[in-house]
Design a protein that fits this description.
eight-stranded mixed sheet, single chain, Protein-Tyrosine Phosphatase, Chain A, 2 domains, 15 helices, UDP-N-acetylmuramoyl-L-alanine:D-glutamate ligase, about 15% strand, alpha/beta, globular
Amino acid sequence: MNYPDSVHFLYALGNEIKTAKFGLERIQAVLAALGRPQDRCRFVHVAGTNGKGSVCAMVESGLRAHGVRTGLFTSPHLAEPTERIRLDGRPIAHSRFTDAFNRVHACAEQMLTAGTIDLHPTYFETVTAMAMLVFAEEQTGMVVLETGLGGRLDATNVVHPELCVITPVDFDHEAYLGRSLEAIAGEKAGILKAGVPAVFAGQRPEAAAVLDARAALLGVPVRRTSEFAVDGLALSARGSSFQVNGLRITCPLPGEHQVENALTAVRALQTLGVPPAAIETGIARTRWPGRLELLAERPETIVDGAHNPAGARALAAYIQRFYAGRRVRLIFGAMRDKAIAEMAGILFPVAQQVIVTAPRQARALSPEAMREIIDHPDLTVVRDLEQALTLVRESRPGDVVFISGSLFLVAEARELLAPEKGQDDGHRFSY
């Protein structure tokens, strides 16, 4: 297959969440048939509810600043699935993606014919296997590997890492991971391996107890961000700076919550033996699109992929801290399987106007249905993001537009407002 065909086939396998097949037997069998490429790589394995993508990006950037040839595996993607598999910070080429897909797909078809697997690997399993092939063949020095869903039964949990990292655990995907923080934390703790060091970000007490118990059972040496004392913290709408453990950290990712993520990355990089200068440089150079990302100046337009209550709380705190006194116009769209009423209860009170719409996704909740379950004194319903952007185009001086609720909606906004952002040239557009 060519690149468009491979992408179409992956999408045809179905939504990553809805078609998830929990268990490691299939991915282990496929990787074994491919020669166990994961055994030829070194890994930092990262799980958590929020912040794991940002932490992965910072850790990878720090390793690269140290001269390490890096692999980075994250999900979901914003524009193209090649973003999920990165070498030295760059998405792999279409041709490399296609080659890896064809090899995994051919292997799966042979195994299906032989009856050695029950079903074709899912979207996520397929891309995970592809990533393992690429990283092994490119002789990466270290791969930063983000879990997709949970941890214990996630397809990425076939590796024996050199370090495990668990970012803050909160509520999300409860139908799959459990209805309590303890249950969700238990799934995340499933990536821990006997004797392998771990870094824990700050946790709510219920989650911390589960993670600590699992670590003790496995004899895992744990390093915690709570062991750090932060000095000279300065927050702005575009990032933060602080001193910690002799380091001067400049984090370009906005939001107070990113301070904890940066601390987690610092702790991980120190554990890996990365020198202070590379840690400082790497974190300062981190780029992680779609998270409190400024896309346009007139009007000031910021996208954020907050898609669960914890993400909504972080976004609301950011708005209250840096945009108090300004007219906030929120464009919001989300998937049906999310805690939409709870997210709206957190976010909508900080906005003077709310425009609800729907991403171009089959799982999206229709804006009409959203109006039935949420309320706001200035609520407008529109069919799509383009219509929403038309409504906010004429804004008063000082107005700020936020687009949030789903990474799918963020991806559409980036495509419409700043299509060049895939090349990360730093330009801002007006509309």
